[in-house]
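INTERNAL AUDIT FORM
Audit reference: QA-55
Scope: verify that the stored structure record matches its stored sequence.
Auditor: D.O.
Record contents follow.
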Amino acid sequence: MVDRGQIEVTVRRTATGMSKGVERESAETGRLIALSDGVFAIVITLLVLEITVPTLPPGASTSDLPSLVVEQWQEFFGYVLSFLVIGLYWILHRRVFAYVDRHDRPLLWLNLLFLLVVGFLPYATAMFSTYPGRFGVMFYAGAQALTGFVLATTWAYAARKDLVAEGLTSRLVGIQAARFVASPLVFLLSMGVALADPLLAIATWVLLVPVTAFFETRTTAEIERIRQR
């Protein structure tokens, strides 16, 4: 005859074990960060692979190579620009998970979605380098804006679901939210400007420098204020 008491004990032990397993999984962010860092490393490497070695036309000599390399300035510009912007997104992603101390399934999927759009950036860079006109600029800016908005959504979700570390003030959470939205807004602005002038649209990307500096200053000041409390 089946011992109902023994069954209940077994069920409770199983439920307890599953609960502890879920808790350990939610607290394990190391593998998530390692996967993300690996994707960033691959994407940055792929950027340089988009720069083609010039081919000498028939009858040309190696003395013509310097001029051919100079003609590739668009590819070099696209590489440097994307390297810096992707590096910026890596720093922001690192900041997100420096504050996040646990996760759930939706946050995992949001992070995977972010890595998906990051992985698309080498193609967007190649499109911009090959066709630096209106379409190329808007295509590239759109890809960068989408990447930034997905990261901003990831932070907003983590903060709303209280997955961030204890001790963060609502002010610091708000500063970080604004910081994550600022970069994609710059690219979104450039898409509108590109309709009138693609070169001016490219120039608007310089706004990323003062925007980044402004929010870094605000973040540092707020962290110091928290420490002094």
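Auditor finding: record pair retrieved intact. DSSP finds nine helices and no strands in the chain.
Action required: none
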